[in-house]
Request: fold
Amino acid sequence: MPGSILKSGARKLIFKNFPRLIIISLIYVVFFTVVSWLSFRLPFGVIWQDTIDSLMSGELPGTDIIFSGFRPVGLLLAVLLSLIQPVLDVGFISYCLKINRNQTTEYKDLLNGFLFFLKAISIFLLTAFFVFLWSLLLIIPGIIASYKYRQAFYILLDDPDKSALQCISESKLIMHGSKLDLLTIDISFIGWYILDFIFILVIPLPFVIPLVSVWIAPYVGLTRVAFYEDRVSGIAV
Reply:
């Protein structure tokens, strides 16, 4: 199914589920923003973020990053906060899946990621490691690899009994021949992300979240859920 149709369906679902979905999006965006802000600003917690950024770009973190200003408590808190982020993502994906499937939703669905905390973290860390290995070849193989594993969280939510490696393996199957399609969809949202960035630069943060980010989160989330559903149904057929 073309990305334009998936995006059109996502917009319809947003308006159909207004204002509840927007409130959920606001909670998610605020929570995610606070966690991200804290993880980046904890004393010496930036070491962890720099390490992850280096790995994701295919580079081994230097000793200057790891040991510069090292303080165990700050680093530990930063690690814990950064690991909460993918769990929050899983919760929001869970909510979007229910919306897309016309199922009854509750505000507590946003916390569903904590039901699969260890598996969500395992998927996050394993995919980061695999992307790092592919990125050692060149940046392009790393990007391709990152798209291979994009459906792992969705698979986990559909079948929580599956292991992290099973979810990653099945994601590769789903994304076979579809990586460029998802990349095209992601690129189509660039205008919204640029607008969001401009608002962040121009307007104080408390006003940015309701104006831009709260719309982008469900728009992107529902479009990606529809992409997943479309690919799964195609494989099933």
About this structure: Residues 3-30+89-236 form one domain. The chain has twelve helices and no strands. The chain has a mean pLDDT of 86.
